[in-house]
Each structure stands twice: as structure tokens, then as C-alpha cells.
Amino acid sequence: MTPLSKALDQGFKYLLLALVLITLIVTVSVIVLLTKESSGFFSQVPLGEFLFGKEWTPLLEPKSFGVLPLVNGTFMIVFGAIGMALPAGLFVATYLNEYATDRTRSYIKPALEVLAGIPTVVYGFFALTFVTPILKTMFPEIQIFNAASGAIVVAIMVLPMIASLVDDGFRSVPRALREGAYGLGANSVEVITQVVIPAAGTRITAAVVLAISRAIGETMAVTLAAGATPKITANPLESIQTMTAYIVQVTSGDVQAGGIEYQTVYVVGALLFVITFMMNVIGNIVLSKPVMEAR
Length: 295
Prior knowledge:
The protein has 295 residues and is an all-alpha fold. The chain has helices at residues 3-42, 47-52, 68-98, 102-117, 120-138, 147-171, 175-183, 188-199, 201-216, 220-226, 243-251, 260-288.
């Protein structure tokens, strides 16, 4: 190896190290910032009141700082979106692996990637101008801003992720398992439901966990579609507010920096960070496991 090659090799090594250090520094900085601002909030509001309180009105009088309405709104969107996107993703992945020709697959995969590349604000306007009017014809009592529209557009957004991960899981199942099942007289439906899906169970689980993490962090689509009414409700036809939507509401307003209203942005962001971090860790642990053989 020439001296120039050695110098380039060393330079590339240090460049990669610098990029890793930048990533770590940014992560630590975010954690320090959230911790610092959240500590000021919790010096005035007990942790129990924040986590278990049922009223969230930090910008109104009398002020209440119970985050459960925002958590309720967030998980209404998440569970609704996953409930729609998971079956659709399974069907898409099954079709791509078991029935589609290479030519058909070459069209469907780019179409899914296009869905993933659409800006989230466009999904928000799509919910307001297309999804909600359709729902209005079926449920006249539905509010203009509602959880159902938000869940539908978030389901469309996470569908490519679920379909792609499940597709990878199906493709990693050994072909011998399928052929063995066919050799025993199983039909295609039995092979899919009793062999392929159980064998790819870890990948499907990882897809669900990572999609939940993605849905929890969604911002603009749910801000525009679901509204800004923090409440504890199970009715998807009503307006709700998610944690990310609240952050948008405060940061786009005239809240004075340094006050407790301002600090609520950081404490909600810290809770959101903890939830998404835990979901990502769980998803990566599940995804790192090898595809299990069907029994």
C-alpha cells in the first residue's frame, strides 16, 4: 500500500469516526436539553399529576397539566392506523411474494415508495378535503377535525413500511418450507397462513413495532386532520389532540419563553422521546432475531 493510499484510508477512517461522534453528540444534546427544561417544569408540577391527570389546559385558566388526554389522542391515532395498515400490509406482502409476477412486482414496489415519499402536510390536506367528506356521508355527526381521518391517513403513511418489512420477512423464509407443505398436499392459502406467516413472525412483529413508533411521531398530518381538542375519548368521530400536534400548536403561537407553558413543550417532547425510543429498541431487538422456522 502506497503512502497516499494509507493516508486516504486513515482519512476515511477518521471521517467515519467523526460522523459517529456527531450522531452521539446530537443525541446527548437532545437528551440534556429535554432533561434541563423538563426539570424546571417538574419543579412546579408533580410527576404524578402530569402522568395521570385527566385535564390538559396549560394555555388556559385554570391551568391543568395532566397529559393523559394527549396520550389518549396519540394512541387513538396509532391503534386506528395500525389496525388498518397491518392487514393491508400483510395482503400486499403476500401478493408480492406468492402471486405477483416479476413485472407486476416492479410496478407495485415503486408505487409503495411513492406513498412513503409524499410530504406529511399533503396527507393532512388530503384528510381534510377528501377523507373527511367521505366519512361525513356515512357518519353525519362526524366533526370536521376527527381522529378517524387522522388514523386513515397515518395508516396510508405507514403502509409502505409494514409492507416492505413483511415482504422482506416472507422472502427470507426458506423455499424448502413452502415446497414441503405443498408436497404434503397443502393449498396456497394453507401454506401462507400455516407456514409462511408463522415463519416470518418476528419480522411481522418488528414491522408492527416500528410502524407504531412511526405513527406516534407523526406530526403535520394529525395536526391538520385530527384537530386540537385534548380530551379523553374513545369516539373516533370527535376532534382530539396528539402530543406532536400540541407541540406544533405551542411553537407556532405566542407563548413566552421560559414560562411553564413554554416548558410543557419540552416535557411533552421528553415523554414522546421516551416512548418512541422504547418502541425503536423493542423493534430492533425483534428485528435482529433470525426468522424462525414454521412448526
